[in-house]
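Researcher: Please predict.
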Amino acid sequence: MSIVETYLAGVRNALPPDELKDLSLATGATARQLHALRSAYPQCPDALLELLAQVNGTWWQVYGDSKIAVLILGSDVFEYPYYLMSVEQTIEGGRTGESLSIAKVYGDLLGKLDDLLDPRIDPLVPMGRRLCFSKCMNNGGTSVLYIDFTPAPGGAVAQIVRFLHDPDSFAVIADSFEAYLQGLIDGGFAFCRVA
């Protein structure tokens, strides 16, 4: 069984019945959709593609006549479970963040706020070059997850970055998407009991 299959089985086992019912409506992204994501982000991890091939998003995603909003991901911020964004939402999000970088948004504050930026994250990289795959329970206003393909020295290509708002911070929470999923498995899918 792959890590994605193990992960989805664990999520389905941990979700409350009403959310499990909504998740059962989800279908996977098509080969064409997955190709479009790989074209936009050539280093997209195979495990994320495998996950999207099973569930093409849970963030207000339409499946047939239904729209679902199911929190199937987590982070190091236990109290905020996350939605999985669809292929289309991910690609569109990348387009909107093409010109903004952390350095451009925070300017002089970067050097003054010790906890703002993990040193493994390059603040000059445009945010659209990071693959945003997840938004937290309040639709991303508090926290968002990225796959970072252009880390600073000491970082890992395809590391998982968590943005948290108020106070703002950018932190590396896993060295890879697979390690990120394994961390949620090891944590017993605790985020499923928060919402």
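Model: The mean pLDDT is 93.
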